[in-house]
Specification:
mainly alpha
């Protein structure tokens, strides 16, 4: 790998370089991969790992070299932002769930109030009918007495 003047390899770059060198070690490396694949019959993951290790291309120039520390810092900042947004959304979700529960409780209490109001209205209506019935009886009694005196 081509390094800019005065720049050392990062641990990640060194690790990748050693893996690629190990994978390209010739027959012994290829035989090792073959033995591992035969040991894990049906495992596609190891074949994918071998293919990805063999297909790693090191940067040709310093301009192509990635600033891993800077990239990790950017990824960490993006992750922190997502975590913060996730926390805010969880708080908002909890608040909305509490509102829904409060509305459901209010709706559950509403029919009881309606039943009580309906019962009270029925009682009032029954009372009015009874009063009207008594008044009519009184008027009829009064008219009957009055007609006897005539």
């Amino acid at each position: 790998m081509v390094q800019p003047p005065g720049r050392e390899s990062t641990p990640l770059e060194s690790t990748l370089n050693s893996w690629v060198a190990w994978a390209n070690a010739g027959a012994s490396g290829g035989a090792l991969f073959q033995n591992l694949q035969e040991g894990f019959a049906g495992s596609q993951g190891l074949a994918t790992l071998q293919q990805s290790l063999l297909s790693v291309r090191l940067p040709d120039s310093a301009e192509e070299a990635i600033d891993w520390e800077g990239e990790l810092k950017r990824q960490n900042a993006a992750n922190d932002e997502l975590c913060s947004e996730n926390s805010q959304l969880q708080v908002e979700l909890k608040k909305l769930q509490e509102e829904v529960e409060a509305l459901e409780a209010a709706e559950a209490a509403l029919p009881k109030e309606t039943e009580a109001a309906k019962t009270a209205a029925d009682d009032t209506e029954g009372l009015l009918e009874e009063i009207i019935h008594q008044l009519r009886d009184q008027v009829q009694n009064s008219l009957a007495r009055f007609s006897r005196f005539r």
